[in-house]
Amino acid sequence: MRGQSTASLSGTAKRFFLIISIILFLVCQGGPLHASEKTVVGVIFSADIPYYRAIHQAFSRVIKERGYAGKIQLIIQRPNPDTLAWSNAIRKVLAYDASIIITYGSGAAFQATYETTSVPIVYAGVYAPDKIDLKKKNVYGVGFRVPVSSLLRYLRQMKEIKRLGIVFSEIEPDSVQQMKDVVNSCRRFSLPYVQLSVKRCREVKERLKLYNYDSLFLTNSALVGKYYPDCKGISDTNTVPAVTTMKGYEDLVIVTLTPDTEIEGALLADILIDLLRGKKPENKIVTNNKLVFNMKKAKKLGISFPIELITGADRVIK
């Protein structure tokens, strides 16, 4: 009996140690437990516009190249450019326990600061962030500067400006700031101007129909960028030249002077990686710009480009 008891005990011990070995093997290999260790990152587009898509594409490529694509889970939201929609999108990613929130555009960035003071917020695609109130303890990001006075100089060299329409969004702080910078440049150049303020999607068309202008400046704005392409049927938008600092509208306007989205995306990736490593990131400002002239559009409007302008362009659409 004693031998049988010993044999039985030995068999039980072997099964016990086998089970323990299997558990330890699975833990060491990661297995299903590894997926739960991914960091959830919420991504909020202030609107689904070409400019933000270009930054996100560059960001995603760098994250993959540096080996972090498998370490994060992106929860992407593309709400309409509206404060309530931004708020709902941010609350949604927070409900998914997002550890970090990335926002494209100042609208979603500011709304995120109202929703959380503890979760890190990383913005991108924001004009002159040092001039707007984005200095919060949990806020980091990549901003850009573009000399708006240069855009006005290019426009003046191509045609006489009798009245410049400045289209901007009241609900996006950086759009308001860019409008102010354009106004200051207009005053220095003694250019007449009119401010076309919008807060809702339908107001973009309404303002363009309501006011008189012979040139347009489209400020950096999710709202403007989302709905201006729908205004091509308005007679004035078909007959007046427009300029902008947003990438992705080169076929609709005659001049774009935009930040380098490849650099913006790479710097955004740097900030996210710093946060994942537990390092406090530094805010970045992109000053590398891309200049594009649309000769094809200008020709339809009866405008010719001085040769000295064309030679300084990064790209010319013919």
Can you give a write-up of this model?
- By secondary structure, the chain is α/β, with parallel strands linked by helices.
- The chain has two domains: 37-145 and 260-288, Response regulator (Rossmann fold); 148-258 and 290-317, Rossmann fold (3-Layer(aba) Sandwich), CATH 3.40.50.
- 46% of the residues lie in helices and 21% in strands.
- The protein is built from 13 helices and 13 strands.
- The protein has helices at residues 2-29, 31-35, 50-65, 83-95, 106-115, 148-158, 173-189, 201-210, 222-227, 235-239, 261-276, 295-300, 307-310; strands at 39-45, 72-77, 100-104, 121-127, 139-144, 164-169, 193-198, 215-218, 242-244, 255-259, 284-286, 289-294, 315-317.
- The strands form two sheets. Strands 7-6-8-9-10-12-13 form a seven-stranded mixed β-sheet, sandwiched between helices. The protein has a six-stranded parallel β-sheet with strand order 2-1-3-4-5-11, sandwiched between helices.
- Helix 3 (50-65) packs across helix 11.
- Residues 1-9 and 22-36 have low confidence and may be disordered.
